[in-house]
Each structure stands twice: as structure tokens, then as C-alpha cells.
Amino acid sequence: MKKENKIINFIKNEVVLVIATLLAIITCFFVPVDKEYLGYFDINTLVCLFCMLAVVAGLKSTNVFEIISRKMINLFHTRRGVIYALVFGTFFFDMIVANDMSLITFLPLTYIVLHSTKNDKYLAFTFIMQTIAANMGGMITPYGNPQNLYLYSYYNIGVTEFINILLIQSIAVAVLLFICCSFIKNEPLKLKRNSKIIIAKKELKIYIILFALVICSIFRLISYKIMLPIVILIILIFDRKRFKQVDYALIATFFVFFIFSGNIARMEFIKNFISKIVAQNTLLAGIISCQFISNVPTAIFLSKFTNNYKDLLISVNIGSLGIIISSLASLITLKEFLKHQPKNFWKYLGMFTIFNIIFITVLLLITKIL
Fold this sequence. Notes:
By secondary structure, this protein is mainly alpha-helical. The protein has one domain (13-369). Helix content is 74%, strand content 0%. It is built from 18 helices and no strands. The chain is globular and about 60 Å long. The N and C termini lie far apart (61 Å). The model has no long low-confidence stretch (mean pLDDT 86).
């Protein structure tokens, strides 16, 4: 009975991982395991994900998020103001780092802010807005999203041209986010408790340095092969218990999803279907492909079929919206949400899908008009 209960609890707590694993296993029947599987995995992403999770866990332990949370509440005063700050903070931070790292940094802060002010019912909405902000915020810069960096290099696109291709869509997303958040009641926020918070200054300094190191690796200023051992060694020396708080299930989710998307891209009937659409409509093909294999594999896959980099670039950014698997960053948010509200899986999924359909429809219309 104990083993059965553990299995049931694991499934409840790790719904995303279980579903992703099942999808990966199913695709393995169509694409038998071979040497090409080794090419599925973005090792840099997995390493940066692990290090960022460890560093953010360390930052949380120093109580710095609680301090930032209180300063935000004092600065913006109201529920709407704070949610604006959290959503647009994610949006602009994504222009500096990748979307998944932006969410890993901001989602814990969002939970602390809303939970400490008894606003947990707004967690799903805020998380969804932040996910859209993270997926869309970086689309204007070549390094904001992994698919952008790949296409920027592959087609040798100029920086000015790159920005101009997605400028209108980026502005439109910011306006849509502002409109959606404006429906939040603008009521004053009050902390549930206002006890004194002590900052672990020594640990904070260490984790700020490590955070900067991970950011440098994301920017490829230093190799992840150098960054990884440094992060592991320093945490082992100063705060080894922090490794227990790393969300290894999230890393495993990324791992099996790489298998799923890699296998899907190798299925002939899907490749033929997508390639036919590419010849007729690159924009539509990219968006549809993202819903099957997510945005980064789509950028790599479709770049082999077309020279229409403008429509392809727009499609793999707009295509980050849609169903939950169209962007790996969306899985990060879902996982974080279920950690706090595991019973609201279907409610979250419904809200996520509705908002994503609204955003993707408006962006498609704007793109067609242009």
C-alpha cells in the first residue's frame, strides 16, 4: 500500500513529467532508439537549467525574494500595480536572458508576493501572463530566445533587420499584456504578516556571483563546461544541502521532451505534412510545427526547407503561443504552478489555452495586415 501511495503521489505531483515521459515512450515505437538520439539534447540548456535552479534555490534561502517582495508591495501599493511589475519584469528580463531562465527567476518571486498578501487566486492568471511575456519578450532580440539565436546565425540576418521583422509584434504583445492585466481589481495590498526578515548576507553574495556566472554562460561569454564545475564546487563547499532543493523532475521533463520532439521531427508522415505546408505557407507551417515539436526544433527543422527567414522567424516566435508543449518555457510555469496548487491543473490548462489562443490570433491578424 505504501508503494502504491508513493506512486500515486508521484503522479499527482509530477503530472507534467509523467505525461512527457508517456509521449516520449510512444514516439520511441515509431522511431527506434539509435545514435541520432544523442543529437536531440541541448546540453547547454540542460546544464544552464540545472545551475539556475540551484542558484535560485540558494537565493530563496537567503530571504532576498521576501525583501524584494516587500519592496515591490511598498512601491506599487496595489494588486494591479504589482502584477504589472511582475509581468513586465519578466517581459524585459527575457530580452537579457532566455525565456526559461527568466521564468525560473521571476516565478518564485511572484508566488511569494501573491501568497504573502492572500492573493493566491490570482496565481494562475499571473503565471500565464508571465509565461506569455517570457515567450514573447525576447523575440525582438537575436539572443532573447534560442530559436532566434539559431536563425540569426543560420541566415546571417543583420541586427537592425532582425529587430524590424518582429518590432510590431513585440509592441502588440506588450499592449495585449497591459490590457489583460488592467482587468485586475486595483485594490491595495496588505501583508499577511510583517515580521522582521534577516538576510543571509554571506550566502547572498555567493549566489549573486553564481547568478552572474550563469548569465554569462547563457550569453556564451563563458562555456557551460567551465561554469558547471565552478557552480557545483562552490555550492558543495558553502551550501551543499541546496542541491536537494533542485527540481530534478523539471530537468527530467526537459530531457524526455527532447526525446519526444526529436522523434516527432523524424517521423516521415509529419515531415512530409509540414514540408508541403512550408512550400505553400511558411508562416502557417512554422506555427503548426511548434504545436507538435515546440519552437526550437521547428526553427532547426524548417530552416532546411525554406529561405523565407522573415516568415519563419515570425512563426517560431508566435508559435511559442498555443498549446502547452509549443514552448519548453511553458512547462516550467506549469510545473511551478502545480507545486503550489496541484488540484487546479485543468483550470490552469484551460486558462492557459484560452489566453494563448487570443494572443496568437491577434498576432496572426497583425502579421497578415502587415
